[in-house]
Amino acid sequence: MRQLGLNTTPCVAVASLVHQWEPRFKLVGLLGLIVAVANVTDRRLIPVILAIAVAMYALARLPLSFWCDRLRYPGFFLMGMVVALPFLTGKTVVWQWGWLSLRTEGLWAALLITSRFITIFTLGLVLLGTTPFLSLVKAMQQLGLPTLLTDMLLLTYRYLQDLAEHLSKLQRSAQLRGVGKQGTIARLQLLAALSGSLLVQSYDRSEDIYRAMRLRGYGHLRRSAAAPISVDVGSAIGLGLSLLTAGGLIAAEWLLNHVQGNA
Amino acid sequence: MHINDGILPAPVCIAGYGLTGLATWFSLRQINRTKDPTRGIPRASMLTSAFFVASLIHIPVPPASVHLVLNGLLGCILGYYAFPAILVGLFLQAVMFGHGGFSTLGVNAAMMGIPALVAYYLFRWGDRILPTVRWVRPGLAFVAAAIGVGLAVLIFFGLTVTNLPAEIDAGAERTAIATLVVAHLPAILLEGLFAGMLVAFLDRVKPELLEHNG
User: Fold this and answer.
1) What is the pLDDT of residues A63-115, one digit of tens each?
2) Would you say B56 and B67 are in contact if contact means Cβ atoms under 8 Å apart?
3) CB pairs under 8 A between A and B
């Protein structure tokens, strides 16, 4: 599993208000904030969204090392775009060296994208870092996600580790036999055969899993009705505050654009 | 090949969720029309796990290496389960690696899932009308997988370049999209070759995996 770079889900066990927030309320509240942040285009709101990210992360009491660790992978992909943007877009040149010119509009665009990314990434991390994976899936199901999707999600998650380990073993044994060192096409052929073996074994195993599930009543038992939403005052206040902040951000964005448009 | 959080404006993210909702509804409706819809769930889930794991493998293309997207191949093998499988896979990638993101999950799912459905229709149509010759299925898989990933690449760069929050003229936009898509042609070809080889293997070893019940 680790050899292929898979991680377990990132919930961090510390006591905080956000950890106690009811998962359904938390999911709706944080998604509301994420949409509002994605809506920001006015650069005057950049400090506001970054402040929201800092406040939420502090409230969740998650360690800074966790944030840095998780940022590495998506941050790497964003970096390529953000670094190129000031040189490729915009008209107002602020610095020039030969054919290379740095433009103001591109710089602002890079700053806006980075700020939106950091804020949404942090809010997503607050959600994942404070909610166990199974609670998150249960919350999504209770909010109306189709059963087929949640069943597929749980089964896929359950067998990822097994299959990753199995593929590692297949790759290792192929390497030990010196197979696939000839070039790209030969290696591609080897990987296709390894993936094919993995698919065939997964298929056979899925038939066994299906039979076991049927024996336990899968497909015949009636699903228990969604639990009634408990009126947890703290969670309701949290949801209200997040949606209020999200609404405030959307209103501020509209007002700033409107005022700028009239000016 | 994911669009990260922060790049796209909210209306595009919301439209992405709308499209994903529609495609999920369509796929689930087709799945529920089958005799026993629950039967396909363990199969689709196990194969989704297998595809997820296979997509993490690096393939050396000197001087770099690439990951396979496998959306077209998923369409060929999973049929209508391909869209839910891609949605589940992307959600897990966001949870496990922070790859993609929650605001762009809908856009990413539509970008990879709809071409997967196109690949499925192409593969199924070809499989029905063409004669049962040894090379037909691998050839169809090559075309379907290349079209699946090619469409996804086109949508990816189209969305990214046209939604930059800075001025870039229309001509430069078109040139940038065309250049980036052409630069990905080797990866598209590789994806098609991999799909062809894998389908040839499955056709020899387990042809029922290529039958479409979904």
Assistant:
1) 999 898 888 878 887 887 788 888 877 778 888 887 788 888 888 888 999 99
2) yes
3) 240
Residues of chain A in contact with residue B101, where contact means CB-CB under 8 angstroms, are 74, 120-121, 124
How high does pLDDT run on average in chain B?
85
Residue of B nearest to A124 (CA): B102
Look up tokens 């602002």; give the residue.
Answer: A108
Q: Note the pLDDT of residue A181.
A: 62
Token pair recorded at residue B25: 């509804």
Mutate to test the interface with B, among A69, A136, A157 (most CBs of B within 10 A): A157
Structure token pair of residue B29: 């409706």
Q: What is the pLDDT of residue A226?
A: 56
CB contact under 8 Å between A200 and B91, yes or no, is no
Cross-chain Cβ contact A199/B47 below 8 Å: yes
User: Would the CA dihedral through A154, A159, A161, A163 be positive or negative?
Assistant: negative
CA distance A159 to B52: 11
* Maximum Cα–Cα distance across chain B: 54
Distance CA B124, CA B76 (A): 8
pTM reported for the whole predicted model = 0.87
State the nearest Cα–Cα gap between B50 and chain A, in angstroms: 6
Q: Report pLDDT for A4.
A: 45
Low-confidence ranges of chain A (pLDDT < 50): 1-5
Three-point CA angle B154, B162, A41, nearest 5°: 140
Query: Helices marked H in chain B — which ranges?
Result: 10-32, 40-54, 71-78, 82-97, 105-129, 136-162, 170-183, 185-205
DSSP assignments along A27-90, one per residue: HHHHHHHHHHHHT---GGGHHHHHHHHHHHHHHHT--HHHHHHHHHHHHHHHHHHHHHHHHHS-
The bridge status of strand A100-103 relative to strand B64-67 is: unpaired
Give the mean model confidence (pLDDT) for residues B42-69.
78
Residue with tokens 């994976």: A133
Question: Chain A: nearest CA to B194, how far in angstroms?
Answer: 6
A85 touches chain B (CB under 8 A): yes
Q: Which residues of A touch B168 (CB under 8 A)?
A: 88-89
In angstroms, the CA A25 to CA A142 distance is 11
Which of these, B167, B116, B185, B105, lies nearest to B144 by C-alpha position? B116
